[in-house]
Specification:
The chain is of the alpha+beta class. It contains three helices and ten strands; from the N terminus they run αβββββαββββαβ.
Length: 183
């Protein structure tokens, strides 16, 4: 009798957790961000768009491996920035889960990962990772978003001094959440 009760309880818990509407793989859907604020301007480039806060500067051609560089033009010792790296995966049929697993293994050899979560909105799905990394006597903190679309991996990275991260995180997150790959 006690075994049947525990079995029914377990089946009930599994049924409830699997019935999460609007999600894939049991991951809850997140609300879509909407930036209609005049403090943001949209940048369209190649096959993506992103909205950038008016206080941040944009360099559309920073380095060959970086597609976009957004930064704070402040007169302090470190330039907080967001950069976009696009990797062509070619014929590789890797899933976002496989990519994140590989990236995490590489990152964990140097950085301390504090958060790694899948975010699903009505129009996109991405992995969000926050990590810290010591670099030349400074503690840096990173916020990354990984998007996979049509054999391309898009990695958006916000970089800040760890002590200043909370000051810039909200606007950086808004910018990064506004990122969209064209259909």
């Amino acid at each position: 009798m006690k075994t049947n009760f525990l079995l029914l309880l377990l089946i009930g818990i599994i049924s409830i957790s699997c019935k999460n509407e609007g999600s894939r793989s049991g991951i809850p859907a997140q609300p879509e961000i909407s930036i209609d604020d005049t403090n943001f301007k949209e940048i369209k480039k190649n096959n993506y768009s992103i909205k950038v806060h008016k206080d941040w500067m944009v360099d559309s051609n920073p380095l060959s491996e970086i597609d976009l560089y957004i930064y704070m033009d402040l007169e302090d010792e470190f330039t907080e920035n967001i950069n976009l790296l696009i990797r062509e995966l070619g014929t590789s049929k890797m899933t976002l889960d496989e990519i994140v697993k590989t990236e995490r293994a590489d990152l964990e050899t140097q950085a301390t990962i504090t958060t790694s979560e899948r975010i699903i909105t009505p129009s996109k799905e991405y992995q969000r990772i926050i990590m810290s990394f010591p670099f030349y006597g400074e503690d840096l903190k990173f916020l990354q978003h990984y998007f996979l679309k049509d054999s391309r991996l898009y990695i958006l990275t916000f970089t800040s001094l760890e002590r200043d991260f909370n000051r810039y995180e909200k606007v950086a997150e808004q910018i990064m959440q506004s990122f969209k790959v064209d259909e």
